[in-house]
Design a protein that fits this description.
Radius of gyration: 26 Å
Largest sheet: 2 strands, antiparallel
Number of strands: 2
Strand order of the largest sheet: 1-2
CATH class of the largest domain: Mainly Alpha
CATH topology of the largest domain: MetI-like fold
Order of helices and strands: HHEEHHHHHHHHHH
CATH architecture of the largest domain: Orthogonal Bundle
Shape: globular
Helix content: over 70%
Strand content: under 5%
Length: about 300
Amino acid sequence: MSNLRTANIEAKDARIKVRWIEFTIVRSLMICALISVVTTLAIVVILAKESSGFFQEVSIYSFLAGLEWNPLIEPRQFGVIPLVLGTLLVSVGACIIAIPIGLGTAIYLSEYASQKTRQWLKPTIELLAGVPSVVFGYFAVTSITPLLQSVFPSTEIFNAASAAIVLSFMVLPTITSLSDDALSAVPRSLREGGYALAATKREVSLGILLPAATSGILAACILGFSRAIGETMAVALAAGSTPNLSLNPLQSAQTMTGYIVQVSMGDTPHGSVEYQSIFAVAALLFLMTFSLNVFSQSILKRLQKSYD
């Protein structure tokens, strides 16, 4: 009888211990989620607070519609369009290069590569994500730019083309890996159905798998574009610091992140309009990426499909 009572007590203690462990895990996960939310809210509050001081000196219209950006030298101009144009020129150029290569690589890994080839090729591509961005920037200045100058002699030392090329290397792992996961998630029955109808591997890949994985591939491309917009050091080193309205990729350009790096070096007095301008630019960049994510989510919901 005493043994049974001891066993019941031990079982009860074990259940209590399990409940406490589960309670601790749940609360820990909740705290992690709250930290993310609080961090995001803190960023929004700081950007709004610092940007409000800037917009007390500069009108929102002149900031968003101005065609000249010259905040550090008199007469000061705070038209952000040259920075936005430089950001889009580099980011779109990087995606034009990276998306076809990444999608083609994903199709090869998913449908054509042997298991042995896949085991070493995919991790090798993903290793690019671990290379520091400053290394990519140095590579762009010392290797890519001289190569462009040998083909196009008018290429400037700092130019948008070399920044776009090196940025495409940086977003390539994201696009390739996520696109490969999207293609691999397509049910095997769709492939077998295509082959049962005497379709070739190319026809199955392009006619069945790509449409079926559209939502995942689109998510990969949008995420890669967001990654390109937010890149800092590589673009700051390769593209230069000359904001202009030119669409010529062989000329120097300044991105929004590049300007933030330039002013954050410590030469600008704290609390000045020039200092507060980095928060205005950062707030605009935040709104751009946030709008892009909302837009991507709306598209994904429309294109997302379920399979039995």
